[in-house]
Amino acid sequence: MNRFMEQFMKSGYKLTRPRRLLLERLEDLDRPFTAEELYEMMNREGIGRATVFRTLKLLLDIGILVRVHLEEGCQHYQLAAGLPGEDHHHDRIICRFCGKITDLDECPMRNDVAAIAKRSGYRLQGHHLDLYGICSRCDADNQKSH
Amino acid sequence: MNRFMEQFMKSGYKLTRPRRLLLERLEDLDRPFTAEELYEMMNREGIGRATVFRTLKLLLDIGILVRVHLEEGCQHYQLAAGLPGEDHHHDRIICRFCGKITDLDECPMRNDVAAIAKRSGYRLQGHHLDLYGICSRCDADNQKSH
DNA sequence: ACAAAAATGATACTTTGTATCAATTGGAGG
DNA sequence: CCTCCAATTGATACAAAGTATCATTTTTGT
Asked: Three-state SS for A7?
């Protein structure tokens, strides 16, 4: 009976075998995962597709999981508890030509977050910044072909 | 024969009836659209599903379209020419509890873009910033239920 | 231990595409 | 202008990622 199971029952849901197994697996999953990845794990223990997807939805409702939005195969899930407060972010530049992704070393939002939280009234937990452009290499290649 | 059709033929592709019709529709579409939306339009003129998706892919390759990444139903397409340079952006705060979305009135990135472009070597065209948190209302509701 | 309510899993269906392939068409060259 | 053939099309079947239905099973309050 881990912390997720308690939270689950407190929310008024029954703790069944499939749910118990799923919540056990969840403890190890510190990185974002897709529904399909989770389904494959659970299916090896005989748990059906519908149940996995239904349980994912419940966990989102309860707040144990959050959806994170990654460019590639964009529906991912992540433990809400794994989000380290305002430090959770994901900042990068994507080349619209070749798709190359460069992660930003420094977060351009670091000085703005507190002010935005104050003005907006939100308690901020993190962010996701995608800059779009043309990388230097593609830019050079395009110049040549003119 | 509009600018898209010229660019299409210059790239070595045949300008067929379905493609001509699709490129005509494209001229009006200034907002992001999904493949499905485009398919519905084209299908009314008797153009097949496969052709619409194939042509979309070609237009991405050629650079007439870019994919934009919106949270809701995340695969959208947009005219590359419609992107207004560095002014193209989309900044907002999303409540992880109720899903409420608040658009930011001022762009927190406005002062950082030039420096990032310089350091990264990318020619920046726009960005997309999602802040995540709990809105004041959900935050208050959660306090109460403890 | 029992009954009611909740949850399950098999199955069929939906949505958003992709692969196949026989039939058609655009356009380069004569 | 006409012909030919590679490129393209659309019908169809298939795939991946879910969702809806419903008869059966499991939990839990008493």
From this structure: helix
Closest approach of B5 to chain A, Cα-based (Å): 19
- Enter the tokens of residue B74: 């995340």
**What CA–CA distances, in Å, run from A116 to A85, B44, B74, B122?**
15, 46, 25, 27
Assign a CATH topology to domain B84-144.
Dna Ligase; domain 1 (3.30.1490)
Chain centre distance of CA B10: 25
Segment B41-53, tens digit of pLDDT: 999 999 999 999 9
Residue whose tokens read 């209302």: B137
Place of tokens 């969840």: A26
- Give the right CATH number for B3-81 from 3.90.79.10, 2.40.10.340, 1.10.10.10, 3.30.565.10: 1.10.10.10
Domain residue extents for chain A: 3-81, 84-144
Kindly determine whether the C-beta of residue A17 is less than 7 Å away from any atom of nucleic acid strand D.
yes
Tell me if B93 and A122 make a contact (CB, 8 A cut-off). yes
Better-predicted residue by pLDDT, A49 or A133 = A49
